[in-house]
Design a protein that fits this description.
Blueprint lengths: L1 E6 L1 H7 L3 E5 L6 H11 L10 E4 L2 E3 L10 E5 L13 E4 L5 H8 L6 E8 L3 E2 L2 E10 L1 H18 L4 E7 L1 E4 L3 E9 L2 H18 L2 E7 L2 E5 L4
Parallel strand pairs: 1-5, 6-10
Antiparallel strand pairs: 1-2, 3-4, 3-5, 7-12, 8-9, 9-11, 9-13, 10-12, 13-14
Helix pairs in contact: 4-5
């Protein structure tokens, strides 16, 4: 059977390719696919723990594979689409705070909270010159939508929107905008905080920091 393995961020750079097509025996699992990839590209997982997605859903290494499956090997996350009023948006375009707020406005909401994540000029004691963001965009938008849907149920009535920019970003650029609306401020604050925390921990978006002495993918929750 045929399985297409996708690599992202530091894994893609280590392998030198973003796609690894495999021919595997029937009954193979994600573990078998990983072994086949590492046989061809041993630097992919050097000193790291792999996170796996099968057809854009997280799975473990024992997950069975079928002909035509897409398997993604995902580095730990660091932490193009529709337009105005869309709750979920991954794009290379500059982000609009007004668009994100428009997605969560409601006549019954007295509380609107917005969080901006911007590119800072120092990190880990070094001067940052710019950042590069990469995403498994199809899965990222799906996970962001899952987070928004669940938080809207938990804090109902509420609305949650998340927009994230990818590509090359300069110092001061906005990388992510998260907004939440609810009848009262407590629910809006809580939903917005949970949304950005979960986006940073589970959504497959990575950043690469460029400093005066080189560049490194940030594969940690920070």
């Amino acid at each position: 059977m045929r399985v297409n393995v996708r690599l992202f961020a530091s894994y893609r750079e280590a392998a030198g390719v973003g796609h690894v097509p495999l021919e595997l025996p029937e009954g193979s699992t994600a573990r078998d696919a990983i072994r086949a990839v590492l046989k061809q590209h041993p630097l992919v997982a050097e000193g790291r723990q792999l996170v796996i997605a099968r057809n854009r859903e997280y799975v473990d290494v024992e997950a069975p594979l079928a002909d035509g499956d897409e398997l993604a090997l995902i580095p730990p996350v660091s932490g193009g689409a529709a337009r105005a009023r869309e709750r979920i948006h991954v794009t290379t375009d500059p982000l609009s705070v007004d668009e994100v707020l428009d997605a969560v406005r409601d006549d019954g909401f007295g509380g609107l909270v917005v969080f901006l994540g911007t590119v800072r000029d120092r990190s880990r004691g070094k001067r940052v010159t710019h950042l590069e963001y990469e995403a498994y965009a199809e899965m990222a938008e799906g996970k962001m939508r899952e987070i928004s849907d669940r938080l809207e149920r938990e804090h109902a009535p509420a609305k949650v929107a998340m927009h994230h920019r990818i590509g090359d970003l300069a110092i001061g650029d906005t990388a992510v905008v998260v907004a939440a609306g609810a009848p009262h401020r407590d629910a809006a604050f809580a939903a917005a905080r949970q949304a950005i925390d979960e986006l940073k921990s589970v959504v497959p978006i990575w950043k690469k920091e460029f400093t005066d002495d080189g560049a490194v993918w940030i594969e940690e929750h920070a």
